[in-house]
Amino acid sequence: MSNIHSEAPVAPVEAFDPPYYVAVFTTVRTEEQSGYSETNARLEDLVKDVPGFLGMDHAQTPGGLGITVGYFRDGDALTAWRDNAEHRAAQKRGQAEWYQSYTLHVAKVERSHGFTRT
């Protein structure tokens, strides 16, 4: 899992052997964020238990655009996460309270590589 809330050095999720899937969730939040941090932390814990979950990257711009990329080994893993009851409930609350707007893009990765300076 990426370093969303940790003290560890910042690093992207590693490159995996394709094919695999990514879910790119891009958001702009509202002023009303009551309960968001707790729910987000809970969902981060839950997704780790999905068989086939590979990791997550997150970035936030100073202007308020948030981007979260989840990596999944296959379509079944992505479907399991989509259909998780707590995740579904959080989606509804997000639409009602936390998000001004969002987009979700799901893609199959055909090529992947990485670099780390040593």
Short description:
The longest helix is centred in the last third of the chain and has 14 residues, at 85-98.
How would you describe what is shown here?
With 118 residues, this protein is an alpha+beta fold. It has a domain at 33-109: Alpha-Beta Plaits (2-Layer Sandwich), CATH 3.30.70.100. It has three helices and four strands. The protein has helices at 36-47, 75-83, 85-98, and strands at 20-29, 53-60, 65-72, 99-109. Strands 2-3-1-4 form a four-stranded antiparallel beta sheet. Strand 2 (53-60) and strand 3 (65-72) form a beta hairpin. Mean pLDDT is 92; it is low at 1-6. This is Antibiotic biosynthesis monooxygenase. It comes from Nonomuraea rhodomycinica. It holds the Pfam family ABM. Residues 19-93 form the ABM domain. Keywords: Monooxygenase, Oxidoreductase.
Strand and helix map with partners:
Blueprint: E1 20-29, H1 36-47, E2 53-60, E3 65-72, H2 75-83, H3 85-98, E4 99-109
Q: Secondary-structure element order, as H and E? A: EHEEHHE
Q: In this structure, how is the largest beta sheet organized?
A: 4 strands, antiparallel
Widest sheet: strand order? 2-3-1-4
The number of distinct β-strands equals: 4
Query: What fraction of the residues are assigned to beta strands by DSSP?
Result: 25-35%
CA radius of gyration is 15 Å
Mean pLDDT: 92
State the helicity in percent bands. 25-40%
Low-confidence stretches: 1-6
CATH class of the domain at 33-109: Alpha Beta
- Distance from N terminus to C terminus (CA atoms, Å) equals 21 Å
Structural class by sheet pairing and helices:
alpha+beta
